[in-house]
Amino acid sequence: MAIYLTQESRVLVQGMTGGEGMKHTRRMLAAGTNVVGGVNPRKAGRTVDFDDRAVPVFGSVAQGMAETGADATVVFVPPAFAKAAVTEAADAGIGLAVVITEGIPVHDTVAFTTHAARRGTRVIGPNCPGLITPGQSNAGIIPADITKPGRIGLVSKSGTLTYQLMYELRDTGFSTCVGIGGDPVVGTTHIDCLAAFEDDPDTELIVLVGEIGGDAEERAAAYVRDHVTKPVVGYIAGFTAPEGKTMGHAGAIVSGSSGTARAKKEALEAVGVRVGDTPTRTARLAQEALDAAE
């Protein structure tokens, strides 16, 4: 099992013919992702050869869906065009839009995530590495060869820490790893993923990675307390960050004690989440929790 993305997913790539889109489409195909088409109105009707796979280019998401049955899209378009790209995908009725693009204005993100939610499209991102169900499908830029299928569900604000925890726990493996992005507004939250992993019968433990800024982790802690029965292990990046500074992701703003790593750690630990002080220690806690459950 998995959440959001499986081997049955049929994936379009908006921006496939650009440099980043080409590179990562090739990587996604190599990971087994069923990429069924690209979208570029100026290159509609062409095909792009990726080793032994010729991928057609469609003029719109709606056309791509009609001709291929696509149910997911990965967005690799420049920031100025991201709002239009996601809005188009949502209007076409696609189920999942994975927005890799960084540097999107917050007001654009608010507009397209709100619109997508109304249209029934789940947005992951923006400014995220995407998601991977190891051994099945990979939508985005997450390295596919650093882990294997397994029993852990991972949700993370940080792309780099997504990769590190995947690698640290490679011998155990993952059901699905979701990089939700660290911008102030994102389409899919920690809570959304917690709920999905709780309902996934093959996810036995959840790893939650957060970082300084905002109150997403505190809200996730309250959700764990009220709704999650599976063990949860956490890690919060930013214990050494100075107060009153913007650091890394646009959402990582700390004011006084609000949004600090310590406050988030305390909120999670108060509801029974074991929180590691390093990624390696977090991985060890996750393995210990799985071993204890056997």
From TrEMBL:
Belongs to the succinate/malate CoA ligase alpha subunit family. The active site is at H249. It catalyses: GTP + succinate + CoA = succinyl-CoA + GDP + phosphate; succinate + ATP + CoA = succinyl-CoA + ADP + phosphate. InterPro entries: Cit_synth/succinyl-CoA_lig_AS, Citrt_syn/SCS-alpha_CS, CoA-bd, CoA_lig_alpha, NAD(P)-bd_dom_sf, SUCC_ACL_C, Succinyl-CoA_synth-like. The lineage of its organism: Bacteria, Bacillati, Actinomycetota, Actinomycetes, Kitasatosporales. GO terms for molecular function: succinate-CoA ligase (ADP-forming) activity. Pathway: Carbohydrate metabolism; tricarboxylic acid cycle; succinate from succinyl-CoA (ligase route): step 1/1. CoA binds at T17, G18, G19, E20, K43, I100, T101, E102. Residues 4-104 form the CoA-binding domain. Its EC number is 6.2.1.5. Keywords: Ligase, Nucleotide-binding, Tricarboxylic acid cycle. Heterotetramer of two alpha and two beta subunits. It comes from the Bacteria. This is Succinate--CoA ligase [ADP-forming] subunit alpha. Succinyl-CoA synthetase functions in the citric acid cycle (TCA), coupling the hydrolysis of succinyl-CoA to the synthesis of either ATP or GTP and thus represents the only step of substrate-level phosphorylation in the TCA. The alpha subunit of the enzyme binds the substrates coenzyme A and phosphate, while succinate binding and nucleotide specificity is provided by the beta subunit. Pfam families: CoA_binding (PF02629), Ligase_CoA (PF00549). Substrate binds at Y163.
